[in-house]
Every structure is written in C-alpha cells, then in structure tokens.
Request: fold
Amino acid sequence: MTKQIAAVPFLTLMLDSSSPIPLHRQLYDGLRHAILSGQLDMGTQLPSTRTLARELGISRTTVVTAFEQLLADGYLEARVGDGTYVARVLPEDLLSVRTRSTQMVQQAPKVPLLSQRGTVLANTPVTATPRVEQPGAFRPGLPALDEVPFDIWERLACRYYRHPPRGLFAYGDSAGYRPLREAIAAYLSTSRAVHCTATQVIIVSGSQQALDITARMLLDPNDAVWLEDPGYIGVRGALIGAGATVIPVPVDEEGLIVTAGEARCANAHMAYVTPSHQYPLGVVMSLKRRLALLEWADRAGARVLEDDYDSEYRYRGRPLASLQGLDTKGQVIYMGTFSKVLFPALRLGYLVVPPDLADAFSTARALADRHSPPLEQAVLADFITEGHFVRHIRRMRALYAQRQQVLLEAVQHELAGILEAAPQESGMHLIGWLPPDVDDKAVAQHAVMVGVEALPLSAFRLQTAQRPGLLLGYVGFNEDEIREGVRRLALVLERVMN
Reply:
C-alpha cells in the first residue's frame, strides 16, 4: 500500500495501488471529498497535473483523467493560461446542502452564552504573566526546576508502580491522603508554628482552588472582602466568582494597613493577606499589624485568609511564625502550596481550617473535583516524611540567596541610575523600581519581545497610587540567564526612555 501527500495545502490523499478501484478514480474521489468537506475552499488553485503526479508517484495520465472527470462534473474549472481551480459554484444539489450547513453555524443563539457572573469571570485577569511557551527571566513564582531531585521523586514513585496498592488507584478521601495530611500538619507545626491536626488539613489542587473553595464556602453575594493593594491577581477571580465585593486596602512597610481597611469597610466579612512576604511588594507584616488584624476580625466577626505562598524562602534569621499561630479564636484559615517549593505541575496545595469547618470544606472539595490524585499525594508524603523535603528547602535557600545577589550585582552594573533594586531577606522575586514618569506596562510589553518577562507592578494595583516598577523573579534562572536577562532589559529601558 502506498500513501502520498498531495502538494495542496491542508490536504492528504491516500491512494492504494493494490486496490481494485483504479487510481484515477481514487484520486477523483479524494479530491471530490476534499472539496465537499471544505478542505479545499472554492477558488483554490490546484497544482499542475505534472507536479501532482510527481508528488503522488503516479503517472500524469492518471491525474489528467481524474481532473477531466472533475471538470466535467463541475467541481473544477480550468482557466486558460492560468491553471486549474476549485469551482466557485458547485453543482446545484450539493451547493444547497453547503448553504444550509453554513446558515446553521452562523445562526445566532437564542440564549446568552454566559451568565452575568460568567461574563464577569471571563473578563477577569487570571495572571499578569504573558502566555509564552518557554518561561524567560524574570518570571516570578517559578522555582529552580533544574534543581528538583527528580531522581529521588522517581525512586519513590516506582515503589508504588512496582507494587501498586489498590487503594491509591481508586477513589480517595476528598480531604486528601491521610499520611500526607499528617506529614503537612507535622511540618507546619515545627516550621511555621501553625496549630493544627491532620483532620484540619484539606488537600487541594494548588492555591487557586484553595482560594475558590474558601470564597464559595464563606462568602455570600455582595459580602465585602479586604484585599491587599497591590496584591495577588488570582484572588480577585475567586472573590468575583463568589459574588463578593472587593475592598482594596493599601500596604506600607508594615503590611496591610488595618486602620485604612476599617475606614473603607469596617464590617467586611473577610480579609485576604500575605503576611510573611507580601505579594508583590515583599514586605513583612509587623507583629503590631498582625494583632490589630486579628482584633478587627474578632470585633467584625470576620475571617482572615492567610496565604503563606513562599514562606520557606527566608535567607536571614529564623522563619517567621504564621498569623494562624497567633489566632486564639479560630478566625484564620491558612493556605499553602507546593508549586513554589517543588514544581508547579504537581498541582498540590493545602488549606488548614478551624476544626468546626473541616467537614464542610471536605464536602466542598469533593464537589469541586472529588480529590487530588492519590498517587502523587502518596509520593509527596514519603518525600516529606523521609526528610527529602526539608533538605531540598535548605539547599534552595542557599541557592536562591546566591541568585538574588547575582541579580542585584547585574542590575547595579547594567542599570545603575535607571532601575533601583534592594536586597530582601526572603522571597522569590525583587521589585525593580523605575523612575516615576516611566510606564511600567510599556516596558513589560517591550521586554516580552526580547524574551524577558518582567511583570509591571501597576498590573497588581486596584486603586493605590505607587511608583512604577517591575517584578524580577530570579530563583528559576541560573546566573548566566539572570545576567543576560538584565542585559536585555537594559536595552529595552534605553529604547523606551529615549
């Protein structure tokens, strides 16, 4: 059997020399089907009979015979001195079928495509990160994927594939794999001073699902929620999806300004905060502010959602205690993710909820997508309990501190007087501050064209006016990539500012 591809765009012709059907008839049927199915549009020029014969490996006489039949039947038309084309008007009976099909496709729907909330969600930004296949410096939130101990991960996974426990390949607990929940509770207790048991830990598919479930479970339409300004873009969609009203609250060097939140909406139902390392500014919420936030939540009967997204990466001093660890009234819901400390594709995160909410959140998790994959949860549980997780974090702290220093030195060398960046004691990105009159969005757009992803700080603001700047993620890139990214960014800034 011989199969050939014709030299016609988007068209595949399959010819079988062993078939009792003559080759010219097979070619006729193939071209006719391509015309009627729309593979060959009306008015498309076909290759010459000589070219098509050569491409298909058949005689020119066979092609000429098929073309003559198609011309006679009205599917092709010949133009003297110009070649052969698909007919612009097909035989009448076939044309009527094509017209009805086209009209059906173009007919306007009788019902709205989306609900009002769906329309709002569809127009809500999910991320400021440009949609490019290969991440470039300085995409924030991307860990050092080349440093993940995949050899250990593979070995742990192979245990289960060689001797697969039946329970891991069936439906699991909606709250998550019990050994993983126990491992997380033990880790959070020692590293973040989180007060919890395994029953309070709910495994989710990353931080975005944690936000979505929390918003849907605790907020009614029009409930007000304090949101750090500037703040994480992804939380806006979760709040809007629950019909909540977002109240932007400014941030200073001590974190979210509680008095400003009370002045704007004292009776809000929830506050979303990133106290250990504010996103995106990187400031740490002071103890005074933390206590003030908890006092407000107690007075208002509100909840506080603490997003501890990258608290592991503190380069100087001891890790900070969580806000949840200060809570004595069961007001704080704590969330974390393994996307920043291992790899984003793992899609595993967790919520720590007060005991009286554990069953309700477990049910909500089941309604979202039943549960996260049990096998990945089992491998992660072993990765934690066998000590690999803590060792990996320890290694990454040293590596990331070094990469931050490389970034600072490169900025000083290439961008002195143009971009200001100061060292931080924690986190995965720095803010590069621009002169007040520079449009950070314009800089970011030009940077993407040269393979640099420096997100504009203004994209994370709702109301609060602030100096323009760029988010410079450094942990996911080696020293050469960081230096080259700064060099390209310098060329972009020179072009934009002149």
